[in-house]
Structures are given as C-alpha cells and as structure tokens.
Write a structure and sequence with these properties.
Number of strands: 9
Strand order of the largest sheet: 4-2-1-5-7-6-9
Low-confidence stretches: none
Structural class: alpha/beta
Length: 247
C-alpha cells in the first residue's frame, strides 16, 4: 500500500533527478561535500544524495560537514546528525569556528552578524572540500529559496538574479550545486515531518534580522492573487539563464 511519505519521497526524488539532469549537477566520479546545517532542507538533501549515490549511474561519493559557530547560539544535536549520516553510510565532519565580534565592531562599516556567520561557515566548508579532494559542494536551498532571492534582488538590489543551481568557480576546481532547486518547500516540510527529522534548536538572535521573511510573506500574498505566480517567476528565471553561472 502506497503511503503519503512514499508519494512525497517519489515527488521529491523525481524533481531532484530532473534538476541534476537538466543542469548537469552530478557526473561520474564526483566527490560531493554536503553542507549539513541540521535543518529539514539539508537533511533531505543528504538523504536524497546518499540514496542516489547507491545507484550505478552517475557514480559519485558523498561526505557531509556540519559547522558550529561558537559565538552564535544556533545549535543542533550533533549526536542526531552523526546518527542520521551514519544511517545513510555518509561520513560527517564536525567543525567549530567563530568570528571576532570586537574586531568587527571597531570597523568603520561593520558587517552584519548574519553575513559574518555565513561567510565563516562557507570558509570552513570550502577549506574541508579542498582538503578532502571534493569537486562539488551541495547546499540545501529549495525552489522557494531561489524565488524569494529573486524577489529580494529585484526590490533591494535593482537587478534580476538568484542563487544558481550550478555555480562553477573559476579560481578553484570547485562547483556549488543546489540539487533541491526544483523542490517546493512545502513538500520538504511535510516529508521531514513524516520521516521524523529532529528539529534543530533555534536560538539565533539575528534570525529575523533580514528581508527574507518579508519576501516569504509577499510571495505568499502574490500566490493567493495568482496561483500560477510560482511557475511564472520560475520560468522567468529559467529564460534569463540564471540557473547556471560561473564566478
């Protein structure tokens, strides 16, 4: 008997496979490092990649990294992440880092904590990827993330752009991929609930100090006015060639 979780897994897997086939995200002999934050999106991404890696084509290997930021109280249960990764046959690397609050406050134009936290986490991910010989870094952004980013860039930056599904880096032999780029957040949320993903502990004092929450609400309002808004905006992104880029 087909259950709801079976239906959801099939839909997510089909869109996951379509994304990496359409944008050539995975190839034979790839060594992929998954950024595992502990949230539902990265857990789903790791599960999909790990299961796909057991299939003969394409042949690729998967490892994961979880970065802990000492001076930002945004934590997950590393025991759970280790157990989750082990159940999928994936090695998990846990790295701890921090940024200097006092030094940043002394700058003429100090950068916001969210930027610094993200930048230092990314630095650790890139360092480990090169150390392990990985050629691709996988991030758990879903379709809603890409659509909200496009709106943020229009309203706050005056340009039409988003996070690409494939970003090839010129300065190093690495590419950033987003295999969940065609998957809707609502599907991941329900799948995570049915699969019993453990929720992370959210205590970040800067969590709502961004425009992303506003864009999420705006997009929900637009969808109420036009249920096809998601498809229209996505098609605009596709036609503009924003899903495969080099940097």
């Amino acid at each position: 008997m087909t259950t709801e979780v079976d239906i959801l897994e099939k839909r997510i897997r089909e869109r996951f496979v379509k994304a990496f086939a359409t944008y050539h995200l995975l190839e034979d002999d790839d060594h992929v490092l998954v950024a595992l934050s502990g949230g539902k999106d990265s857990l789903c991404l790791l599960e999909m990649l790990a299961k796909r890696s057991r299939i003969e084509h394409p042949r690729f290997s998967v490892e994961a990294i979880h970065v802990r930021m000492e001076n930002i109280a945004y934590e997950t249960s590393t025991d759970y992440l280790e157990q989750f990764s082990k159940s999928l046959g994936v090695s998990l690397h846990i790295v701890t880092t921090r940024f200097d609050d006092d030094l940043e406050k002394s700058q003429t134009k100090p950068k916001p904590p969210c930027f610094l936290c993200s930048w230092y986490r990314r630095k650790q991910i890139f360092n480990l990827a090169q150390e392990l010989g990985c050629n691709k870094i996988a991030l758990g952004h879903h379709q809603d993330d890409l659509l909200h980013t496009a709106l943020m860039n229009i309203f706050y930056q005056g340009r039409f752009d988003t996070m690409p599904a494939m970003l090839k880096l010129r300065k190093m032999p690495l590419a950033i991929i987003r295999p969940l780029c065609m998957v809707q957040e609502s599907d991941i949320s329900r799948y995570a609930e049915l699969r019993g993903y453990e929720k992370q502990l959210k205590h970040c004092p800067y969590e709502h100090d961004t425009h992303r929450t506003d864009m999420r609400r705006l997009f929900e309002q637009v969808q109420q006015m036009n249920p096809e808004a998601r498809h229209s905006l996505w098609n605009a992104i596709v036609r503009a060639g924003k899903l495969v880029e080099e940097s």
